[in-house]
């Protein structure tokens, strides 16, 4: 094998109450990376599509390349690898765009080299990709993109990544309104402290969400999708958030909140038909009342993580 | 049936990171209540033993009587019931003493009346018992005492009480040092606010604890038994806490923290032999270095809740 194409899924981080500790992967959208063996040592980015020229091809600044380079260095490999990065989802949308590229890049590189490391062992390299993209080595997007399903990051020091079961009939709608939320703003607007009652509500709901996922209790999952910490602050940066969320709940969503740091909003539901109907209604609410266009993605939870598309 | 004797178990609330939302019941210690039908309408406390004269026999102030009265009023019953309350555990120890009495009282009354309500339906009456004893209708002791096992209180409004599975080989050591921690002090010493990073660590660990219990992963349960909120504050009221906890961990406890608001300290472990050894060592640490006597209780997790002892 000298060439491989890998898809890595988008992810919804935080998932209501699980601020900075929880995320899941969806079947679509996602990014694709083509990796090709080359005679020139090191990692090069030879092509990026779908980014409107926003991303760097510099191998020290591109998240896919940084992740692949980290792997090669870890293995002490002299191999040369060329990457073509195909962005198939919006950048800066709260869907883990940089994470998906990092995961696709390092998984493609690992496969090209004969898969010396397990998927889980690739996690540190994807986190370094996140550091380049976001300034911090967060795992709540890269871990679910890499491993699939629902992922809990219990702790960073030491890193403790735990896979939580995925109920069968769980569908996700993610709607990305065409506005920009700057990462600095999403950070700055967060409270510095929370009251003890707020904290109690938050860890009660995080615990309820985990219990609901293990017990396959969709009602409990829905009741637990309440975020008292990030959503009240960050929703101020998303015009129409309250109305769009209410629309999703009125149409039968189990729960709804901001995807990552936004502006995308996700909703969980118990059927494909409902998930599609909810997506259309959320889209229409933004169009009709806020003159905002949006992309709608409907899929099941991705349980497998990245997929090899061709080789 | 005109007379019944019921045992209700002691409980460990908070359980590390689950401040105010989590608790479990133990096989011992616990309180016993004897309920007898009488011809005089209403609930009377005719005897209390084991309380050193500290508890009130006034049916409006005694937690067992308040719970039983609430049931009778709910049922519109004209029945008369006399209660004998036998305290079989230390008061003010952080082991849910008032909760166990309330649960034993209302379960005994319910059984005497032919069990018109389910155990779960009795919960509101036990919470009213807690209100009389503690000033607030907390559920994190009464719910596990009443239902057995590990219990999550996801929310109070509306009340959402969720049973979490109990791993088979889980043993609990609780050691009660003979000091008094006043409830006012335990409350006053709590921080009013926590930082976001502290919150993230807390709900990460709460989520990990729930996942460990569902997955029967004792190591994960142990790693998750970290409390960044109440323990750092309240441990200051317990002389020798740090050393006693370290002793438990050194002897192989999965984890250890304060039971409820203290001063009792609990440790979880994976065998009876280890749990006993840990209890002895915790006891000795308090005796040798702090001249504090203590009671040691070792048992499995109580999965059934209250037990009818005789009728």
Give the largest chain-chain interface (CB within 8 Å): A-B, 39 and 39 residues
Which structural class matches the secondary elements of chain A?
Answer: alpha+beta
Mean pLDDT of chain A: 96
Total domains of chain A: 2
Q: What is the CATH fold-level name of the largest domain in chain A?
A: Ribosomal Protein S5, domain 2
Alpha carbon gap, first and last residue of chain A:
7 Å
Provide the CATH top-level class of the largest domain in chain A. Answer: Alpha Beta
- Give the percentage of residues in beta strands of chain A: 25-35%
CA-atom Rg of chain A in angstroms: 19 Å
- CATH architecture assignment of the largest domain in chain A: 2-Layer Sandwich
Largest sheet data of chain A: 7 strands, mixed
Oligomer: homodimer
Low-confidence spans of chain A: pLDDT under 50, at least 5 residues?
none
- Discrete helix count of chain A: 10
Write structural notes for this entry:
2 copies of one chain form a homodimer. Chain A is an alpha+beta fold. Chain A has 2 domains: 3-164 and 302-310, Ribosomal Protein S5, domain 2 (2-Layer Sandwich); 171-300, GHMP kinase, C-terminal domain (Alpha-Beta Plaits), CATH 3.30.70. Chain A contains 10 helices and 12 strands. The first copy, chain A, has helices at residues 63-75, 97-112, 123-134, 142-147, 183-188, 196-215, 218-224, 230-234, 241-250, 272-290, and strands at residues 3-13, 22-38, 42-49, 80-86, 150-156, 159-164, 171-177, 193-195, 255-258, 265-269, 294-300, 307-310. In chain A, the strands form 2 sheets. In chain A, strands 1, 2, 3, 4, 5, 6 and 12 form a 7-stranded mixed sheet that branches. In chain A, strands 9-10-7-11 form a 4-stranded antiparallel sheet, with helices on both faces. In chain A, strand 3 (42-49), helix 1 (63-75) and strand 4 (80-86) form a beta-alpha-beta unit. In chain A, helix 2 (97-112) packs antiparallel against helix 3, helix 6 runs antiparallel to helix 7 (218-224) and helix 9 runs antiparallel to helix 10 (272-290). The longest helix of chain A is centred in the middle third of the chain and has 20 residues, at 196-215. The first copy, chain A, is globular. The first copy, chain A, starts with a strand and ends with a strand. Chain A binds chain B through residues 17-22, 152-155, 160, 162, 164, 190-196, 199-211, 214-215, 220, 223-224, 229, and chain B through 17-22, 152-155, 160, 162, 164, 190-196, 199-211, 214-215, 220, 223-224, 229. Strand 8 (193-195) of chain A pairs antiparallel with strand 8 (193-195) of chain B, so a sheet runs across the interface.
């Amino acid at each position: 094998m000298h060439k491989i194409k890998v898809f890595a899924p988008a992810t919804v981080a935080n998932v209501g109450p699980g601020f900075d500790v929880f995320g899941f992967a969806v079947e679509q959208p996602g990014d694709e990376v083509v990796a090709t063996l080359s005679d020139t040592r090191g990692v090069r980015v030879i092509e990026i599509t779908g980014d409107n020229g926003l991303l760097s091809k510099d191998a020290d600044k591109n998240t896919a390349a940084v992740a692949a380079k980290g792997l090669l260095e870890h293995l002490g490999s002299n191999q040369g690898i060329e990457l073509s990065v195909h962005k198939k989802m919006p950048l800066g949308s709260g869907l883990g765009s940089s994470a998906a590229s990092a995961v696709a890049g390092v998984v493609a590189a690992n496969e090209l080299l004969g898969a010396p490391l397990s998927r889980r062992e690739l996690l540190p390299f994807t986190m370094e990709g996140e550091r380049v993209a976001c300034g911090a080595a967060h795992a709540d997007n890269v871990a679910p993109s890499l491993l699939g399903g629902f992922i809990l990051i219990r702790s960073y020091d030491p890193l403790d990544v735990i896979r939580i079961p995925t109920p069968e009939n769980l569908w996700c709608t993610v709607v990305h309104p065409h506005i920009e939320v700057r990462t600095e703003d999403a950070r700055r607007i967060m409270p510095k402290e929370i009251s003890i009652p707020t904290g109690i509500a938050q860890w009660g709901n995080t615990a309820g969400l985990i219990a609901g996922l293990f017990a396959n209790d969709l009602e409990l999952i829905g009741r637990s999708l309440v975020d008292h910490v990030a959503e009240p602050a960050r929703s101020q940066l998303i015009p129409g958030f309250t109305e769009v969320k209410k629309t999703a709940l009125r149409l039968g969503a189990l729960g709804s909140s901001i995807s990552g740091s936004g502006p995308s909003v996700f909703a969980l539901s118990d059927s494909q038909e409902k998930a599609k109907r909810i997506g259309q209604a959320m889209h229409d609410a933004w169009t009709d009342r806020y003159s905002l266009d949006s992309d709608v993605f409907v899929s099941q939870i991705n349980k497998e993580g990245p997929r090899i598309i061709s080789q």
